[in-house]
Design goal:
The complex is a heterodimer of chains A (262) and B (305).
Chain A (H helix, E strand, L loop, with lengths): L1 H11 L2 H25 L14 H4 L7 H7 L3 H18 L1 H6 L5 H34 L13 H32 L2 H22 L3 H4 L1 H9 L8 H25 L5
Helix pairs in contact in A: 1-7, 2-4, 2-7, 4-7, 5-8, 5-9, 7-8, 8-9, 8-11, 8-12, 11-12
Chain B lengths: L3 E12 L2 E12 L3 E5 L6 H8 L7 E6 L2 E2 L10 E4 L11 H12 L6 H7 L15 H12 L6 E5 L7 H14 L5 E6 L2 H5 L4 E6 L2 E7 H5 L3 E7 L5 H10 L3 E5 L2 E5 L4 H14 L4 E8 L2 H11 L3
Parallel strand pairs in B: 3-8, 3-9, 6-7, 7-8
Antiparallel strand pairs in B: 1-2, 1-4, 4-5, 9-10, 11-13, 11-14, 12-13
Helix pairs in contact in B: 3-4
Classes of the chains: A mainly alpha (262), B alpha/beta (305).
């Protein structure tokens, strides 16, 4: 499987995709920081959908707060990206071509997923570091103190923020991969994934709040946010892991039974 | 030690009600360049996909390089294949694509420049795959199949979609690949392409074997004399003469084909003499071998040989 991971990294580690990924991370950092700092109220309760206040930004972990808040919006982007990347492997025939070199289907799929997630981890880390630096630049303008941002506790918070965001990214990646595997067609998988994680979940939870705790998209949003009022982090991680296990089981079943004809 | 590069026994693949491959029995000796012949939908690609572990047989058994096909990891490192159409990453260059596949297969990437030269893509390896012509894509697919210096090369319709020049280049390339004791199985429905490079033939139709064996044996007995009378009305009388002379005769437009087993010159002299004695003037009399296509069509349309 390491050969597949190395091949995937070889494929992705090129100037153009890496530059685009880095620019995307930087753009995210700028937009997230400016939006969070300019939109945050001075103090008060945090809304049900997350968010923060200038008071919280000035405390321990405030340097990566904009990263954590902004990251709640990237899950869907990750989802769509993984569907597009993996489904095109099936429809374009490169999955078949890879199996001619390594017939272990599970190794090929997991190797590709791990390879992409390694790159994703780098992009997430870059986004977090960049958000911290931009937050340092933006803080004085909003009278936010940065003295607590360099404490050991802030470092722990930064690691935790990275961990929850990456766990959420990995969860979206697994769901995206599963949909890609089920449908083997990028447009079809994207359509179904978009309809489910977009309108369906978000409209349904307005009238059925249990959806915040059971819908995969809502669970992963809670993971990325480090927990929400409706779903705590540990429960979200547990539920997310359960869903990921089910998704992996579906993929494994299809892997074992399906002929590779594309 | 096995002498078969691949073998199948009763290999069958059904998709619901449709039978794509129907009890196929094959035996391919090592070192041959085998043409896998059949019309579109005959089951060639499905058979190849089963041999490569991509498609699971409904029933039957098969072995590649002595290993059963339910363990493709045991033999795939010695097999190079281009099946259906070439599949690469469009945004990557030819060289980058080959590096990715070399890494997955554990092959030596240092072979890439030589392979590009072998398939005639030298100087184009740094171009993006999406900009390649169809012929270049096919050739890159063959270079990819050769990454592991395989003992068995399986090529599925490598000339598909190529122009006449491209088909000729592909034919020459397959001829070059056939050396070094490598076994090549190449499928096509363009029989004239295979006729010139293959020394072994496997003919199938509707998923069943029609013939397998040396190409020379398949075409043996197809040596004949093309005979045409000056007057078209003498055609039937001439046919009777040839039949009386012990020839198997086919009427083809304005001339006859008289098949024979012996020496062509001697047979031509006998035909000429008999026609002269019967008062029939010949305007055409020459030895002619049926093409693979003619032979195949006569087999498919006329039943067994």
């Amino acid at each position: 499987m390491t050969a597949v991971i190395r091949a995937e990294l070889q494929r992705l580690w090129r100037r153009k995709p890496m530059t685009l990924a880095a620019l995307g991370a930087l753009l995210f950092s700028v937009v997230a920081t400016l939006t969070v700092f300019s939109g945050a109220p001075a103090s008060g309760p945090v809304g049900p959908q997350g968010g923060t206040t200038l008071e919280l930004l000035g405390r321990q972990g405030g340097g990566t707060e904009a990263f954590a808040v902004g990251a709640s919006f990237i899950g869907f982007f990750v989802f769509v990206t993984f569907i597009a990347l993996l489904a095109s492997e099936f429809s374009g025939g490169t999955y078949r071509a890879l199996l001619l070199r390594n017939p272990h289907r599970l190794q090929v799929i997991i190797g590709k997923l791990v390879g992409i997630l390694i790159v994703a981890a780098g992009v997430v880390l870059l986004a977090e570091v960049a958000t911290f630096i931009i937050s340092l630049l933006a803080a004085p303008g909003q009278d936010v103190s940065t003295s607590d941002w360099f404490s050991a506790g802030s470092a722990v918070d930064a690691v935790k923020d990275f961990g929850t965001v990456f766990a959420g990214v990995a969860g979206w990646a697994i769901f995206g991969t599963t949909l890609a595997f089920v449908f083997r067609s990028a447009p079809l998988a994207l359509g179904v994934g978009f309809a489910w994680a977009g309108p369906f979940e978000n409209i349904t939870v307005d009238s059925w709040t249990t959806g915040y705790r059971v819908f995969p998209g809502q669970v992963l949003r809670a993971v990325i946010n480090g927990g929400t009022p409706e779903l705590g982090l540990s429960r979200a991680l547990l539920t997310g892991a359960l869903y990921a296990g089910v998704a992996a089981a579906i993929s494994l079943l299809l892997l074992a039974r399906r002929d590779v004809t594309a | 030690m096995t002498t078969s590069a691949l073998s199948t026994t009763g290999l069958t693949k059904r998709y619901g009600e449709r039978t794509a491959v129907d009890g196929l029995d094959l035996e391919l000796p090592t070192g041959v360049v085998a043409g896998f012949v059949g019309p579109n939908g005959a089951g060639k690609t499905t058979t190849m996909a089963m041999l490569l572990g991509l498609v699971r047989p409904t029933s039957g058994t098969a072995a590649v390089l002595g290993h059963p096909i339910d363990h493709p990891s045991a033999y795939l490192h010695d097999v190079g294949a281009l099946i259906e159409s070439p599949a690469f990453y469009p945004a990557l260059t030819g060289i980058e694509n080959l590096r990715v596949f070399a890494t997955v297969g554990g092959h030596d990437p240092d072979r890439i420049p030589a392979l590009l030269e072998l398939v005639g893509l030298e100087g184009r390896g740094d171009d993006r795959y999406r900009g390649y012509s169809l012929g270049m894509k096919q050739r890159l697919g063959i270079a990819s199949a050769l990454l592991g210096d395989p003992k068995l090369l399986i090529l599925d319709e490598p000339s598909n979609g190529l122009d006449p020049q491209g088909m000729r280049e592909m034919r020459d390339l397959i001829g070059r690949l056939a050396g070094s004791g490598r076994t090549v199985l190449v499928s096509s429905h363009v029989l004239s392409e295979l006729e010139q490079v293959c020394d072994w033939l496997v003919l199938i139709d509707t998923g069943r074997t029609l013939y397998q064996g040396p190409a020379a044996d398949f075409l043996a007995g197809s040596d004949g004399l093309a005979v045409a009378p000056e007057r078209p009305e003498d055609l039937l009388a001439l046919a009777d003469l040839l039949v009386a002379g012990g020839h198997l005769v086919e009427v083809r437009d304005d001339h006859l084909m008289a098949f024979m087993d012996g020496d062509a010159k001697r047979a031509a002299a006998a035909v000429n003499r008999a026609a002269f004695d019967a008062g029939i003037v010949l305007v055409e009399l020459h030895a002619q071998r049926s093409s693979l296509e003619e032979r195949y069509l006569s087999m498919v349309q006329g039943g067994a040989l």
